[in-house]
Give the backbone structure.
Amino acid sequence: MAKKTYSSYRPTTMAANGMITTPHYLASQAGMKVLQNGGNAVETAIAAASTIGVVYPHMNGIGGDNFWLIYNAKEKELKAINSSGSAGDKATIEFYKSQQFEKIPSRGVLAANTVPGAVAGWDLAYQFSQKNLKGTYTWGQLLEAAIDYAKEGFPVTPSQQYWTNTNLNKEDNELRHLQRFPQFCNVFLKSNGLSYSPGELMKQPDLASTLEAIATEGSQVFYKGNLAKIMDRDFQENGGLLTYEDFARHKSDWVEPISVKYRGNTVYNVPPNSQGFASLSILNILNHFNLDLVEEGSVEYYHLLIEAIKLAFVDRDKYLTDPEYSPIPLQYLLSPQRGLELAEIINFTNAKNFDQQLDPKGDTIWLGVVDKEGNAVSMIQSIYHEFGSGYIPKNTGIVLQNRGSFFSLDPEHVNCLQPNKRTYHTLNPAMMFTDDKLSLVYGTMGGEGQPQTQTALITRIADYGYPVQAAIEAPRWLYGRTWGVESNRLKMEGRVSKEVLQALREKGHDVEIHEDFTDVMGHAGVIKIDHATGVKYGGADPRGDGAALGY
């Protein structure tokens, strides 16, 4: 079958030297400034990640976690960082049960029960950069753009206004009614109680002071210094669970990347507690199908990929947690044998339905960088729900994540809450190598949607020859439930043809049609490297506010 390509609304960005893509243009610009002035991929990523935590606050912040893939081009070595935080000593099933909770709250101080690892992740990557990648920037220099935007302000995007207003729903006290938190109002609402409008400048003086402290005193001020003490005091005054000792105990880890072969390429991701193995498992299943016989965009294409995703998620949900607390048979789960076993279950006539309820929620950023020397970063950073827990320790400006609400209060559940345990994590950055050379840096935000969008990107680029930007823009889907919905619905963008949508329904898919470009599908990004010419091809998602920039 002839390979098919799509046109795109945006052009693919092309550059001979360095490339960065992030889901916010100001973060891309902050990174590009570092990249153009001789910074390496890691330094660029830190500048962009710190900036996006300021200018995209509904999606991200320094009160969350991050995971990294870092490629050292000179040594031809790929390394990974797990900088997710663990639950505090006081975070126990017994505590929540004693407070009459059947599940961990999604918002508020009791949702913020895991230590934020993001700042420690920047630091670990920075130390590697200094030692191995000839880093020239000081730690403080890399935070300058973030500090400036927090202090002087940045123009609010329509996305920020939309998600702010969405979270001012008084009828949903558990999830959406964030104005019940005084510090949320102080930071994200104007004095009249309304959200900022697009184009209005928003300043975050408390966050600026926090970032200045981190810039001058180093990351340890967040975990063992004055910031940790301030947060500890605020938690104790408001009935929270995290303590100074929990922050001081945090450790970010170097971990071994995991991989599968796909169409002659090697695709890498990060190991558990990340769901990265689910993203790889989908490709491991698709290896057993000849996509040359399946037209991209056809009902067969969507059906095959969605069924593979469902089966990979069953394995994921059975095993995924902190591997220190429960063994995960990764070698088997990513073996060709397991891929074949799952592939043989797929029925091209009927959709398979599962009782397990999936939640595609997750507000996150992914960013990618390739520098002039060929070093690269695929990094993902998250506070989980938009605005995380909604809880901000007074005078810090730090929006704390609610990633710990993912823990189960059922002691028999594989991801049950235990002190010092890392929860099941949706974050998973990816890279692909062709003939042992880095060929693709890619990823997306979107919780459950991350493995699904990664699959769309890889199949469209590796199997169907799509240009980078066209692959990002092509119609996407999302399998899973959303808040208040009991069924695992299949969300499809409106650009999918009516004939395909109807055929999917006839196969048993519960189809729900969304806007042509909806950020429900996540904000994806890709950098492709052509080793014959040295040109990098970058793309950013029009569903977000991002930009791919090169020089």
Residues 291 and 463 are 7 Å apart (CA to CA). The two ends are 36 Å apart (CA to CA). The chain has a mean pLDDT of 94.
